[in-house]
Amino acid sequence: MNQSPVTKIPVSDGVRQALETSLRGVEELLPQDEWVKKLARSEATGQPLRIKLGLDPTAPDIHIGHTVVLNKMRQLQDLGHQVIFLIGDFTSLIGDPSGRNSTRPPLTPEQIQFNAETYYRQASMVLDPARTEIRYNSEWSEPLGATGMIQLASRFTVARMMERNDFHDRFKAGNPIAVHEFLYPLMQGYDSVALKSDLELGGTDQKFNLLMGRHLQQEYGQEPQCILTMPLLEGLDGIEKMSKSKNNYIGISEDANTMYAKVLSISDTLMWRWYTLLSFQSLAQIEALKAEVANGRNPKDAKVALAKEITARFHSAAAADAAEQDFIHRSKGGVPDEIPEVALSGAPLGIGALLKQANLAPSTSEANRLIEGGGVRIDGGVVSDKGLRLGAGTYVVQVGKRKFARVTLA
């Protein structure tokens, strides 16, 4: 019996370039051969692929570590594909158990709404809002009802759910797992069914949930999505992942001068990692810059370019130029043109209390530590006496390289 030949879609230079863009900085792209076929079909038909990123608005603010996956979305958006920014307002009510050793408390609908609005506004600094489809998974999750939820749950086994590392580890350690937590990966996977997703992006900690989308799409007779995981960005210290709790982060809502100075503070080695994951320059441009540094160009030139690019993205080119000048001015011992004005009472006031009340140190003990390290200046002079008391007057107080205040003490 003769079988009809399988039609092969040729892989063009455009598809190869799209694959290179897709693979830039990624942890995994699975299955890669299926993604190549999707790219080739899209090029042949002119039909954009549907690329999904789901984010639960568990907090209102994001740092540049969160933008690693958004940058990838923007790269794919610039290739002409349809990106979908999915806000998990329904799944936030369950609470994502990924990477947790305890049950995550669910948010209230009011918290979710507030966080979602702030989150999308910040994400729009990376994505092109005019070409971004915004969806909320309550659209299809709430109409499922009890019957639909039971039918959905029948499509995955408890044994396979327990293969997931965090569930397995918690069960082995005797830590409780609530039944509703099993619903989370099911509901995230069902999002891919509802959106007919071709590719879903996420952090490395989301791999199980992303694969659930593939499984459920097959269960519902759809072509399964590919999955792409992005690594977690190292913070300013170059060791731990970027985190507010570790104070090694750059918030995307921070002022331009602080953002610029923080990028310049990273190591020369970490700089290239940040270039790959955060810069919009092509890999060829980055490699050329790396070669120039290897041949003797000052690495600070490359770091300045990165700092200006990142600052301009979240502020403006003019703000990035001004931040550069501000940094040069400060490095020469100058005081910025604009610094916070603080009025305090209680003269004479101890230096530790003054730093705390002026929001230049979180506590008097931390203020004392800063003084011991030589990190506190008053009117340009280093403070070495933790017992210093300041009388009435106006002082320019500096902590570290970036914190200033003009304090008027009465």
From TrEMBL:
Entries under NCBIfam families matching the protein: tyrS
Subunit structure comment from the entry: Homodimer.
Pfam families: S4 (PF01479), tRNA-synt_1b (PF00579)
Annotated GO MF terms: ATP binding; RNA binding; tyrosine-tRNA ligase activity
Gene3D superfamilies: HUPs, RNA-binding S4 domain, Tyrosyl-Transfer RNA Synthetase
Keywords: Aminoacyl-tRNA synthetase, ATP-binding, Cytoplasm, Ligase, Nucleotide-binding, Protein biosynthesis, RNA-binding
Domain RNA-binding S4, first and last residues per copy: 349-410
InterPro entries recorded: aa-tRNA-synth_I_CS (IPR001412), aa-tRNA-synth_Ic (IPR002305), Rossmann-like_a/b/a_fold (IPR014729), S4_RNA-bd (IPR002942), S4_RNA-bd_sf (IPR036986), Tyr-tRNA-ligase (IPR002307), Tyr-tRNA-ligase_bac-type (IPR024088), Tyr-tRNA-ligase_bac_2 (IPR024108)
Gene expressing this chain: tyrS
Record's protein name: Tyrosine--tRNA ligase
Catalytic activity: tRNA(Tyr) + L-tyrosine + ATP = L-tyrosyl-tRNA(Tyr) + AMP + diphosphate + H(+)
GO biological processes: tyrosyl-tRNA aminoacylation
Known EC number: 6.1.1.1
Main location: cytoplasm
Cellular component GO terms held in the UniProt record: cytosol
Catalytic EC class: ligase
